Q: What sequence folds into this?
């Protein structure tokens, strides 16, 4: 029996003891008040300067990582919803993000959420971002972002294969 089982069975656990199991992860779903990933507010990438949009998105992400509030960065590819992929080379920004994640002892999430909920053809982070995270030894955790029981664990094996392929 684990220490956790003993504490739970006896009921002698404190808030501090419970908090050791809590992870705080942050993600960007709004850019300057705009809920870009909201399914009821579809938008077309042709209506935006994707380079400027991604610059702002990654700037917000770096602020989140450097805030000291979180243990992980969730859905770093959320802006890819509706097929909005970065156009320019953001590898220097990915390196900056990887370094900030390491400095703040944080992980990054490889999520199948966009594939499951938006029909995105690309699974998880874009290849350059994922390669940078693996190369910089940022812990990469998989998540199915399941909103229903049938989606729990969906594409986790495929995402683990992508992560292993970067090593």
A:
């Amino acid at each position: 029996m684990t220490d956790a089982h003993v504490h739970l069975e006896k009921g002698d656990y404190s808030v501090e003891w419970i908090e050791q199991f809590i992870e705080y992860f942050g993600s960007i779903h709004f850019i300057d008040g705009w809920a870009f990933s909201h399914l009821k507010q579809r938008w077309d990438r042709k209506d935006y300067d994707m380079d400027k949009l991604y610059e702002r998105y990654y700037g917000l992400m770096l602020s989140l990582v450097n805030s000291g509030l979180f243990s992980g960065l969730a859905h770093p590819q959320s802006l890819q919803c509706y097929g909005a992929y970065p156009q320019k080379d953001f590898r220097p920004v990915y390196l900056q993000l990887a370094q900030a994640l390491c400095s703040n002892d944080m992980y990054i999430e490889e999520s199948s959420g966009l594939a499951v909920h938006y029909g995105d053809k690309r699974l998880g982070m874009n290849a350059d971002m994922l390669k940078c995270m693996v190369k910089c030894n940022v812990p990469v955790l998989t998540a199915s972002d399941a909103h229903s029981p049938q989606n729990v664990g969906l594409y986790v094996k495929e995402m683990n294969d992508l992560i292993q392929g970067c090593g």
About this structure: The CA atoms of residues 27 and 75 lie 6 Å apart.
